[in-house]
Structures are given as C-alpha cells and as structure tokens.
Amino acid sequence: MPDYSFVRQTDGFTCGPTVALVASAALDPEYGATVTDPAAEQHRLHRAANFIWPRKLGTTPPGVAAVISRHTAPLGVRYGWRVFRGDLAPAIAAVECDWPVGLLIGNSIPRHWILIIGHDSGRLQCFNPARGSETTIAVEDVAGRKLDPLGFPRAFALVLPRRTV
Asked: Does residue 33 fall inside a structural domain?
C-alpha cells in the first residue's frame, strides 16, 4: 500500500471519507494521482457519500462502501458492508490480497472509521485518519474489544470487497 501518511481527516466528521479516499487511491492509482488537495477531496467525498444522512453524524457504512466501489467497479469488485460479529476472516483474506478494509469502531455507538491495510502473524496494520498514521493491533483485540490504541474499544461494522460485478 502506498504511503498516505500525509492524509489526515480535516475535522471530527470526515474519518469515513478519509478512509474511502485512502482505500480508493490505493486501489485506483490514477485517481490517487489526481488528489492534490486531500482536505477538499474529503469534503467532496463526504457530500457524495451522504445524500440523506446528516454529515455531522459522520458517514454510514453503505456510504463508505459506495465511494470505494466507484473506484473498484472497473476492477470487477464492489465493496459492501456487514455488521461485525467477531469474524475477521473475510477482512484478513481481503487485506492479504491487497484489498483494504474499512472498520467502524466506537464505544456504545459507532464513532470512528479506520482502514485495515495489512495482516501479518496475527496482527492487523491499520491506517488511522485522525492521526494520519498507521497503528498495529492484534487480531484477537478486535473481538476482545481492546481497540483503544485506535481511539475506541469496539468494532461495529466492516466495509470490504464482497462480490464481483
């Protein structure tokens, strides 16, 4: 995955669009090359992802999946979402094939998006848009609600490649 450490969410509501931007740029290098102003692109993607949902409430899993799918459909893959129920096998399989996976985390309610970009020996490499940096967490910590290094302890939803077109 290319280095997108220069990309950071611009406010408390653009973590989802930032995750979608980084995933889309990694999967579609032509798109990535056109992003000269990541802050402006985050806001454009936020508007595109949230037709009805208020932007002050963040970005929904279907919105993040739709934004990424615009860049993966030509590759024969669409992104979809699912509620996280403790099974990371599909996410691990995806990132091992270089398909990044969005993960919605929070406390008692969903609050923040991160992007899983790698897996090695039971550890997940995650891009955190709040910091514009990568963090590594143990796979068992996701199901064990020990995601505090990412900002919140609990996983709520996954956005991952799910079917071919």
From this structure: yes
d(CA 128, CA 117): 10
Pairing label, strands 110-120, 154-164: unpaired
Q: How deeply is 151 buried, as exposed, middle or buried, from its count of CB atoms within 10 A (0-12, 13-18, 19+)?
A: middle
CATH assignment at residue 41? 3.90.70.10
Give residue 147's domain range. 15-164
In a domain, 24, yes or no: yes
Query: Residue 88 in 3-state DSSP?
Result: coil
Q: What is the 3-state secondary structure (H, E, C) of 1-16?
A: CCCCCCCCCCCCCCHH
pTM over 0.85: yes
User: CA-CA distance, 112 to 26, in Å (whole number)?
Assistant: 20
- Number of domain units in the chain: 1
Encode pLDDT of 83-111 as tens digits: 999 999 999 999 999 999 999 999 999 99
Cβ count near 157 (within 10 Å): 21
